Amino acid sequence: MHVLLTNDDGIAAPGLKALEEAMTQLGWDFTTVAPAVEQSQCGHRVTTHQHLRVDAVGDNRHAVHGTPADCVRLALFALDVRPDLVLSGINAGGNMGQDIVISGTVAAAREAAYHGLRSAALSHYMIRELAVDWQRTASWIAEILRETHPRPQPHGSFWNINLPHLPAGQSDLPPRIECHPARSPLQVAYEKKDQGYAYSASYASRPRDPGSDVEACFGGNVAVSLLHV
Fold first, then answer.
1. Phi, psi for residue 135 in degrees, rounded to 5
2. Sequence-ordered list of residues with C-beta below 8 angstroms from that of 30, at least 6 positions apart, any chain
3. Three-class SS of residue 27?
4. pLDDT along the chain (229 residues), means of 10
5. Which residues pair with 93 in a beta bridge?
6. Is the Cα dihedral 191, 105, 78, 17 positive or negative?
7. Angle (deg, nearest 10), helices 134-148 and 14-26
8. What is the C-alpha to C-alpha distance for residues 56 and 73, in angstroms, rounded to an integer?
9. What's the pLDDT score for residue 169?
């Protein structure tokens, strides 16, 4: 079992370290190919008209000066990585509903699915007032992967999994709810500043469509969706 790991928060992100810890807990070999710097909300952008620099930053760890989708492409077609599974995350922030289109985390999993590989995007909804227990997150993700990996995954599909943000001390993995992506748009608002218009909408106040990933995750559950390219 060999896994390709990537993300959109960058090679130094704590969520990526937690994902590597989850692989250790599972006993799965892995190669990490992740952006050199944060690439959040870059969507499925790819680089085809500039050179892509890749820096070795440790054993089987590579920092790419490009996007998450670039990382998957380079791993498969330049770095000779042959994964059984591609995992993208663990993102510091949710990727649900309209986020799915915007997210670089999801784009990496989607890129892998286009090439016929099993893949999943893994994200952690964040509540500003709560600290993140990344060790707990690693354990939760390991347990979730034990459940989802053996399940059938149709060609051209990938999992989108969002963890809730629960207070410290709640160590048990929350219920897993299979759901569809929310269809309501994100709220949009701007404040006029001297420099221009600053985005001011609240992510946490977005609509909780019944049966959706947002309703599941905001309700303290793990939102699990099977998406298709």
1. -65, -45
2. 2, 3, 4, 5, 20, 23, 60
3. coil
4. 97 98 98 97 97 96 98 98 98 98 98 98 96 97 96 95 94 97 96 97 96 98 97
5. 124
6. positive
7. 50
8. 17
9. 85
Element holding 145 (H helix, E strand)? helix 134-148
Q: Which structure tokens are listed for 129?
A: 């007032």
Structural domain total, the chain: 1
With beta carbons less than 8 A apart as the criterion, state whether 98 and 147 touch.
no
pLDDT at 191: 97
Q: Phi/psi at 5 (nearest 5 deg)?
A: -110, 140
How far is it, in rounded angstroms, from Cα 79 to Cα 180? Answer: 35
Question: In angstroms, what is the C-alpha Rg of the chain?
Answer: 17
Give the pLDDT of residue 52: 97
Cα(52)–Cα(101) distance, integer angstroms: 24
Distances (CA, A) of 83 to 4, 106, 118: 6, 18, 9
DSSP letter, residue 53: -
Q: Is 181 helix (H, G, I), strand (E, B) or coil?
A: coil
- What is the 8-class DSSP label of residue 107? H
For residue 205, what is the domain's CATH number?
Answer: 3.40.1210.10
- Which is nearest to 218 in space by CA: 99, 121, 96? 96
> In terms of residue numbers, what domain contains 61?
2-228
How far apart (Å, rounded) are the C-alpha atoms in residues 222 and 3?
A: 22
